[in-house]
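Follow-up to my post from last week.
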Amino acid sequence: MRDFIYEIPVKVYFGREQFGHLGQELSRHGKKVLLIYGGGSIKRTGLYDKVVSEIEKADLKLYEYSGIEPNPRIDSVRKGAQLCKEEHIDVLLAVGGGSTIDAAKYMAAAACADCDPWDFLEKKAPVKEALPIVTILTLAATGSEMDACGVISNPETHDKIVGMSPKLFPKASFLDPTNTYTVSAYQTACGAADIMSHVIETYFNMEDGLYMLDCFMEGLMQTVVKFAPVALRDPENYEARANLMWASSWAINGFISGGRSHLWSCHPIEHELSAIYDITHGLGLAILTPRWMEYCLNERTVSKYYQFGTRVFGIDASLEPMTVARKSIELLSEFFFKTLGLKSTFTEVGIQKKDFAHMAQKACEGDVLQSGLGPLKQEDIEKIFEMCL
Amino acid sequence: MRDFIYEIPVKVYFGREQFGHLGQELSRHGKKVLLIYGGGSIKRTGLYDKVVSEIEKADLKLYEYSGIEPNPRIDSVRKGAQLCKEEHIDVLLAVGGGSTIDAAKYMAAAACADCDPWDFLEKKAPVKEALPIVTILTLAATGSEMDACGVISNPETHDKIVGMSPKLFPKASFLDPTNTYTVSAYQTACGAADIMSHVIETYFNMEDGLYMLDCFMEGLMQTVVKFAPVALRDPENYEARANLMWASSWAINGFISGGRSHLWSCHPIEHELSAIYDITHGLGLAILTPRWMEYCLNERTVSKYYQFGTRVFGIDASLEPMTVARKSIELLSEFFFKTLGLKSTFTEVGIQKKDFAHMAQKACEGDVLQSGLGPLKQEDIEKIFEMCL
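User reply:
Got it. Predicted complex:
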């Protein structure tokens, strides 16, 4: 078991009636607030008006940057950071899902630095300072509301890179499950797949870890399996939206990986898919994950699949471990592709064989694929891609 | 489901090789360190020398206050706070279990105030400021290393009162499981009972809450049930000590109660026992908890016992809920009194019937017994006491 440091300084306001704290949370950091959001759905839902009203009530000065893309682009980060510098912004308020929050994080870092923001991602330039960030979450998926990471895309170079720094933790996040009532069935499904994948990446790790955290991960996965279908059937079910929302934060805020390596497998591979094809992250993960599990199943790894199958899906514990393992992959596939209704193959989403070698080669850069269920080389990833066709 | 605010700003260094961070953590807060500890077991184990050496290496000035009692007394708090004021202490370093850390918390508060420290407890005087606290945990039990609470006793008035304030969160806590290798079997057992009870108090609550947190609580309880016997059998088992240690923090740091009321039942009752009899807190809880569960079992509450029995103890889910419920109480009693080897009755620990009315009456002060499995009045508590004889 590895030593670890636990530190999650984010304050979370969870529930329906927490909005009244927004002005006070922003005011802690200054007067000039940059409101950052995406394509404008927050105007249709009325959330925009509520936010503006709270900002006015608190006598703060409002600036705006909208149009953050899904798979947010480095150019948006550059422009937002420029605006922060020009207007001497004090605090960033990101309203949206992971893309908006991730973009805000690197705007906040770039606003306090002289380098190009892409240097934080590509060259791993350390984030020495960042403007404070407050978030209002509208999509349960990436967990960016409670972690120190951000993923930014560079369409020019077809790169999609994850960065992290303790300076990027939001100061406060507002998690009101009713703000996800209007999330489409497709995005709800992709979000659920994303949460599930964050847990699976950490859970399927052959290092000795804390049993207590395995139990918690199993609970998170059971939660997603139980409530994602409820949210799809009944989008305004508070209990379902609340469970998915809090699970999204805890699946990736760092708690569950205590004692084990933080290295993941499917995420770095998926980033290469969405860097070229711009598909939704959760969808790419759903297609990849069961194939990766199938590819990595062997005598050395089977015990973890057995634990997963019996404890998350309730498969009969008296069956042979290998039988349980295969059954668990089937049930996970069924969850992604039948229950959540996500497309199940590369062919359906237009990912082509001609890019396999290139994407697999890029995914292998660095040492990220050395851990988890076992080391993966370029040829392994290409084989996993073949299984996804 | 209630709204809630989540905020746990404690930094935790977990593992065997984290000690090197101690000097740096203390130095953040100043030069003058008050080392607080109990009866001197840390000198026998060598931990004292290690701590002093780190403090010297970091060029800090060391002061000491030792002799904190189990069920720490307000008089120790007064003396420690006085020393902080006289010597202009910058930071408190509590090395020990919950008693030492709780005492340090109220020393830290009283050092920044003019009132008598007992006012924080008895009169609920707000803690406006407190000196920073760093802890090194040597006993997995109370969770004080990661929460904002402290329990202080006043032997003159036979009061034992819990207080809390966000100002009392330790800044950093060092959790090295090897520091609990020398904990006696009896204290290991009492600690396990304490952790178990913290979870049970939160879990047995008939309000609608987050399913995800129920799963996590079940995981915490499974962890204690699995590893407490291992730690008793094999005191230097790292995995067992690590799981118990991290479980102790998460059983009470506030995370698991998100969405439900924080009101507890057995703890306020037990505090009346140990206020008069000075028994170990975990032992009192172990004796009380199964009787409280038995007393509160009815048609309205049975579903929670059923969930507990099937998911924590693996009782056959096809049995009648009431049968599962009774069986779950039996298994919990067996865990406390056979597996952990704790005494099972008031008679064995010398608690006498003549004090029942008085203790029950005091436990009912305030509204703390209105929640959980249902409201309890003085006569209910007296009946629970009778069951403990």
